[in-house]
Structures are given as structure tokens and as C-alpha cells.
Amino acid sequence: MSEPKTPTPAGDTYKGWVFKWTNYIKGYQRRWFVLSNGLLSYYRTQAEMGHTCRGTINLATATITVDDACNFVISNGGAQTYHLKASCEVERQRWITALELAKAKAACMQAESDDSGDDFSPSSPPVAHGQGGRTQNSEVQSALRTLGSKVEDLSTCNDLISKHGSALQRSLSELDSLRLTGEAGDKIRQVTERATLFRITSNAMINACRDFLALAQAHSKRWQKALQAERDQRVRLEETLEQLAKQHNNLERAFRGAAQANATADNKSSAGPGKGEASDEDDDNEFFDAMEEAPEFITVPADPHFHKSVIYPTYPFTLNEEPLVMNQESPSQELILLKKRRTRIPDKPNYSLNLWSIMKNCIGKELSKIPMPVNFNEPISMLQRLSEDLEYHELLDKASKCQSSLEQMCYVAAFSVSSYSTTVYRTGKPFNPLLGETYELDRRRESGYRSLCEQVSHHPPAAAHHAISDRGWTLRQEITVASKFRGKYLSIMPLGTIHAIFEKGNNHYTWKKVTTTVHNIIVGKLWIDQSGEIDVVNHTTGDRCHLKFAPYSYFSRDVARKVTGVVMDKDGKAHYVLSGTWDEKMEFSRVMQSSRGGENGTEGKQKTVYQTLKAREVWRRNPLPEGAETMYYFTALALTLNELEEGVAPTDSRRRPDQRLMEDGRWEEANSEKQRLEEKQRSVRREREREAASAPHDSYQALWFERCEDRITGEQIHIYKGGYWEAKDRGSWEGCPDIF
């Protein structure tokens, strides 16, 4: 059977072959695209439609641009971009028309669902599958009965019109047969003409009704059977999906058992995605067109005695290499009384809840639009989670004392990696902050820094963060989180730029975050992976560090969660090589010489070989507190984030009641309180929109941050404008909104 060459419309579904750009080696490859319900999905073949989707993009937030006669691009703001090529201009125009139509429908549907927010009513649990099926079935049967009754009424009227029309025509004919003269005869003829017109019109209507009745009677049973078949098919598909997920999990376990047996026989060890935790899929094999990439470079020791080894050394720093930190300041002799902070929180209750029953109807939606109970949260807000980036602030302290900008880059790059170490076991979702919610982290006495976060936007959710240290550095960022639920996994894409500025040398660094993926959403143990690339750029000197987070793969022999990077100056010369894992440690090695050598066996491409001095450990993850597995796997810093403190703003996350109830283990009350807070926020937003209608210039403005254009990136961001710490010293919070 020949395959269709042009896209085929089928109701609201549009499908066909399109060429998709994969990489510079393979170029454009033919893929089977399906457009349905505002989602554009693609597969390698039509046969894959039943089991393996290679990617999906939501058209509601996507942009569609045309490059030339046959090429067009679909992008959702940077997280996903499809470069597509049709076989001819006519086919491209068909796709563009279908995509624009689907985008308009999806945008309308999304606008209607915007007010759903993050609601969850504990008194209205999800309807059980069987009960929902019976309810839908009774509604359909009732509608069919009503339709049948109306059709019978129409048939009766048809018969009556026919009967009375014939009787009227006979009476008029009899009257016309009487020989009447004068005015009476004229009236009779006039009535006869009008009756004839009425008869013609009635006959036309009767014929149309007869055709409709015949058609309705012929097709009503067929429609009823079709509706029942569709409903039964949906039930079967849901049951099949759950069975497939369980079978997939069993196959994975069997495969890992066989792999471990082979590894034991060969005296080799391999690490899984979570050091023994279950993995849901091979990301490279299932979701990417390109094959797994070989390492971009090889490091070898500069000592000729070891020239045959390819290493990631762990032995200590030697005298031949200069230390990164210079001129350590002498410790102060002043004794400072520090506050004793808590080391435990109440244990997490063991409440069971079926995640699939809530999320199976939310595939392709934004995470912030999915109704979520607190059962899937952790008792901290997104603002507090953002403040956790400062867990390893010592790296910035050391970086501020470096004499060389290239050495400083090593510490900044390690700091950018360290923020992911807290996510290894943290599968809970932080609370979405309310608009105007703030969080302060004052560690000036203990660590020399203090930090402030504020939720500056609700749709899309965006948080601004500003931290300043007495030790010569400032950190600021504005992060918007885009997230998509794909059925088996959840992708979280942080959007925004992080800035680190050092007083010494006035070096200004920027970088972005990589994609976080939560696997095994349907069945199995949840585990987290980080993947993507980071460019840490020093805008003052032009130095750059390119970091690569390798996605987990069954077939990779590399250590899991691997991160590699190279520090280069503005001319592209390599000075340091970084390697390690984002969940354990990072090391750096100084490059003494670099050369082109070695080949990638799959493509024949040469790799760069760096001769390096012995590696030095630049960062290592702190061990988790005792009993962390019963406390949401919080780190020592995370355990203190929600601890009550005096003097904080009334909008501080520590004062949020639903979050506090959840931490105390009172989850049912927390769900009710969460619903109350979100309803209050929606009421305030509606009131603000009404006021904005009369005064369009009066839009929402953050309290402690102001919106402006960043001079480095050109982005519209919120920057701290000052005043918070002074207000705290005065104890004056008059300008704070009442959000709790």
C-alpha cells in the first residue's frame, strides 16, 4: 500500500509526512506529523503512533513563521523549536492553514481555562472511572430519547398537514364547481389561487420533512452505535495504557537484572539513573532523532609517564599547579552569637493518592494549570526553592578572592552546577507563590549574605531574586518556569538569565538553567534527570565556559549524571577542563597543551585532546541530614527555610497558612486553605482587571522590584530597587498587600 504524500485532514485531525531538521550530520529527515486538539506531534513512522511519540508541541503558545517557499518554523519560546520543510509550496500552505486554525482554537480553549488556576476541592474527589462512564452513558441515552421523541412529533405534524391540506383542496374544488357570478366568483377564484400556492409550499415542506425523517431514522441507530463504540474504545485505551505502563516497568526491571548479571560476569559496574532507582526510558533512543554523541574532548595527564591513560583524576592538588584561591583573609577574632536553627521538621505522612487518576486528562497542559492537591507538594514555596541556589555560596566567596578571571570562572561554573544537587531525590512540587508573595533569607551573620525573592507575575508565573554578600559578590535572577506533562514524564524548563557580579575586577557573569525531567509519572519510582547545555559568559573579559549535562541513557558507559566543561578565554584558547556529576562533585584540571587527535568512530570526526595537570576538587555535595528520607529529602539549609522568624514581612512565605499546615502534617486542612487562598487571589485579580479597564496604565507593579531592560542581555526583567531591609529595620510594612 502506498503512503500518502500530502497531508490528510480527518475531522479536527491533520496528518501527513513532513521533513524535519534533526542535526548537521543527518539534515532533514522525513517524519510523520499529526495535528490534533491543538497539539502537533511527530513520529518516525505511522506504525509508531500507537506507542512512541518523538515529540509534541502545544500550538496555544507557539509561533509559526515561514522561511521560504517550502520551509516553516514552529517554536514555543525557546524550549522547543521544529524546523520543517514541505515537499512543495502547496503542501506547505496546507500545513500553515491547518496550524493557524488549530492555534486559534487552542488559544481560545486556553483562555477559557485560565481561571482554573491551581484549584483543588477536597470535598470533590476525582470521579471514579466506572461511575464517570455510567454518568456519561445515561446522559447520552437521555439525549437520544429526547431526539427520538421530537422526530416522532415531526412525523405526526407531517401526516396532519398532508391530511388537512388534501381536505381543504377538495372543499375548494367543490366550491369552484358551483356556478357563482359577480363579486362572489372573483373572491372564490382568489381564495383558490392562494390555496394552490399554500398547497405547493406545503408539499415542498412535506417532501423536505419526509426526506429528513427517512435520513434520521436510517442514521439514528448508526449514530448511537458509533457513540457507544467511541466510549468503549476510550475505556479500552485507558485500560490498555495502564497495562502497557506496568508491562514496560516489568520489562525494565528484567532488562536491568540481566544487565547487572552480565556486568558482574565481566567485572564491570554500571550506574542507573538514581543509583538503583528505576528508569522509565532511554531518552536518547526514544525522544531524540540524533544518535548519542561521543565525548567532545579527551583529557590526558601532562606527565609523559601516564600518556596512555584517559582519566578523570581524583587525587589531591600538587605543587606544580597554582591554587585557585589567592590571598586568604585572616579570620576575624570577634565572637558572634549565632542563632540556633532547627534540624528537623515533622515527618511526612503516608497518604496514598493515585497520581494517574488526576493527571491522565492533563497531558500537554502547563503544570500551573493542573489542579493539584498538596499531596504532591513539598512544604516550601518556589521562592524558597529558588533561595536554595545559595546552598553552596562558599563557591562565590572563593571566586571573589581569585586574582585571575579564568580561575574565577571555574568557581562560577561549579556554582551553576551545584544548584542541581538538591534535586536528586526531591520529587515534590513546591507551592506556587501568590502574586506579591516574598521570601527573605538573612544569613548575614553566619555567611555574610542576605537574599530576597518576590513573585512579580502570576500569568506567566515569574519570581525575581536578589542576593548580596559582604564578601564582594551579588547574585540576581528572574526565573519563569515552563512545564509540560507528557504522560510518562514531566519536563520543567526554567526560562530566564542568572547574573553574578563581583566587585573585584567588576566581572559580570551570566548563564541559564538546563531542563529538569521527572520520570515514571504513571508507574514506578519517580526519578529526576538534568539535561542540556550551559554557557557561562564573563561579559567583562569575554571568557566563556561551556558545560554539558549528559542525559541518562541505558546504553551509555559513562557515569550517570555526568557534567563536562571547558573554560576558554576570549580567543577560544582552553585553560581549564571541568568534569564530574551534578549530584556529587566537580573537579577542574589546568590545561597545559591541546591538540586535535582521536576519532569519533561513528562519524570519523576528530576530537580535541587536552593535556592537563592533576585534577583538583572544586565542589562536593554536602551529606543529607539524618532521617532526610522522612523529611522530603530536605538538605540542612532546606530544613531551616520555613522556620518561623520574627520581623519578616507579612507577605513572607513562612506566614503562608496552607504551607504551614502541610508541614505540620494536616493535609486535609491544607487543601481547604490552599483553595481559599487561590480563590482570594482570583478575586483580587478580577478587581484589578476592572480597575485597569478604566485606567489602562494602572497595571500591577511589584513592591520591591522594578521592571526595566537588562543592559547585558536586553531582556525585560525585574531588578531590586531597594527599601526592603530598611523597612524591616523600621518594622514598617504599610505597603505590603494582604495576600494571606
UniProtKB/TrEMBL annotation:
Principal place of residence: membrane
Keyword hit for Membrane: yes
Topology within the bilayer: Peripheral membrane protein
UniProt cross-references to InterPro entries, sorted A to Z: OSBP_sf, Oxysterol-bd, Oxysterol-bd_CS, PH-like_dom_sf, PH_domain
Compartment annotation: Membrane
Coiled-coil ranges from the UniProt annotation: none
UniProt domain PH: residue ranges: 11-104
Compositionally skewed regions (Polar residues) per UniProt: 261-270
Similarity section: Belongs to the OSBP family.
Protein name: Oxysterol-binding protein
Taxonomic classification: Eukaryota, Metazoa, Chordata, Craniata, Vertebrata
